[in-house]
Amino acid sequence: MLPELLLQRGELEEAQAESEQDLVVARLARELLGTAIDDFEKQNQDPVIQHAQRLVEQVVPSWGTLMMTYPAGGKPTITRDSTSGRLLSDRLSDGARALLHLGIRLAFAERDSERRGLALPLICDDPFAHFDDDRTRGALELLRDTSKRHQVILFTCETGTRTLAADLGAHVINL
């Protein structure tokens, strides 16, 4: 009986060692495949997302990489991949999410303008409500640059935003 049990124990230990090796191989394969997928997604992003990233980086140079991902069976999601990790857009701070949405809107407007051959006006209603002073200034500079191709109408109730816009050359109309 003891020799049989020792034989079974040896077989089980051997099976366990094989399973542990298989697990190591599977984890390594998953990591390598994940890296390959990430690289492919970064290199093959939608042109609107690529342009939005460039716009956002004008305001926050260390922003990271914007990526549109397509989970199996789910709706497309936008993530921000940076040195601090990957975040879904709904996990960003209010200010970061507002900047992301502004960048996407401006990038889409540019693409639509190129497609139509017509630059429609852009109307913004206090898009900087969740921005700090540095981001507000950077985003206003972004709108100033955009105003070279589109008419930009910016509504704000913030005196500081209005003053800064005027300092950057905006024509201010008080309502």
UniProtKB/TrEMBL annotation:
InterPro entries: P-loop_NTPase (IPR027417). This is Unannotated protein.
